[in-house]
Amino acid sequence: MRCAILVAAIALFVAWLMHAGLSLHSYPDRLAQISSADTVIDNTGPYATKADWSPTGKMAMLHKVTPVRAEFFDAELVRLREQSESSSKPLRVLDAGCGGGLISNSLARRGHNITGIDISVGALDYARDTARAEGLENARFEMGSLYELPYASHSFDAVVCSDVLEHITDLKSVLRELRRVLRPGGLLLVDTINRTWLSLLVAVFGAEVVLGACVPGSHDWRLFITPEELTEAMEASGFRVRRNFPGFRPSLTMVLDALRAYVFHAIPVEDIRGEVSLEASPGWVNYFAVAETGS
Questions:
Q1: Measured between alpha carbons, how far is 170 from 33 in angstroms, rounded to an integer?
Q2: Is 197 exposed, middle or buried (0-12, 13-18, 19+ CB in 10 A)?
């Protein structure tokens, strides 16, 4: 039975690849500036309204993985604060590409001073509404582009960039901006998607086609970034990279419940159970990276 399901899944995957006409050739240089005309991605439409960001909206699965993301980022932020001379003060943290503020508000609940920036009005409205409803006075949200951040140099102790870099067409330019706004000794904390066959299967075919958990066109597999490419780009921008890249491991319960919710509509999305843990480096679908600016 399992073999039959696997064969059927592979056949469906191959048929989708042929029908979709996707290019499976990586860009010659992922670190070079890529023309928007050469990509197949929508960076605004899927994230445009407050309803998209609710626990029952298009971003429902992001709510499920936010706790493990926030826990990883918070552990690094606490470590940074303990090492600083003013360890009693909250850290100034920029959430670059904050979307609906899921990570921003999670970190604000943990006591960090958060500034979230994004290009989506609807996403920012959801983030502000959440912060206001919870009385999070240490979280603020602003509209702006990561290519030209509206902040002075050395404005932040740390920058979080979650689910963003795989949407960026000029990676080095963004990383230079993130480096500019970080203070000496600051941290850049990244969560992005690896460019592997498994990420094509899971993050594009699985999430967009089978489950419908993401709007089709939310991702262009060619824009995904390998740990080696990200390391090279970060180092070229003046960061020191920790060469350890853990990734997500969803529990079997979560996988099965996601199928029940999205494919068979047997349960509401908000009733998906299960947990997400971190697997050892490297993450074959997504992965985390930590980099320092140096003193």
A1: 4
A2: exposed
Are 120 and 47 a contacting pair, CB within 8 Å? Answer: yes
Assigned token pair, 81 = 């604060």
**Helix orientation angle between 102-109 and 121-134, rounded to the nearest 10 degrees:** 20
Interatomic CA distance for residues 1 and 9, integer angstroms: 12
Query: Which of 92, 225, 65 minimizes the C-alpha distance to 155?
Result: 92
User: Rounded to an integer, what distance in angstroms lies between the CA atom of residue 146 and that of residue 135?
Assistant: 27
How remote is the C-alpha of 294 from its chain's centroid? 24
Distances (CA, A) of 268 to 130, 238, 265: 22, 46, 7
Q: Which residues pair with 287 in a beta bridge?
A: 192
Rg (CA), the chain: 19
Return the amino acid letter for 244: N
Residue 5, H or E segment = helix 2-20
Instruction: Mention every residue, 6+ apart, whose C-beta is less than 8 A from residue 41.
Output: 167, 217, 218, 219, 220, 223
Other beta carbons less than 10 A from residue 15's beta carbon? 10
Q: Which two tokens stand for residue 1?
A: 């039975």
| pLDDT per residue as tens digits for the range 192-215 | 999 998 888 888 877 777 776 677
Helix (H, G, I), strand (E, B) or coil at 241: strand
Could you give the CA distance from residue 136 to residue 232 in angstroms, rounded to a whole number? 37
Q: Read off the pLDDT of residues 65-79 as tens digits, 9 standing for 90 and up.
A: 999 999 999 999 999
Q: Is 5 exposed, middle or buried (0-12, 13-18, 19+ CB in 10 A)?
A: exposed
Q: Is the pLDDT of residue 251 over 80?
A: yes
**Is residue 11's pLDDT more than 70?**
no
Q: pLDDT digit string (tens) for 30-44?
A: 999 998 888 877 777
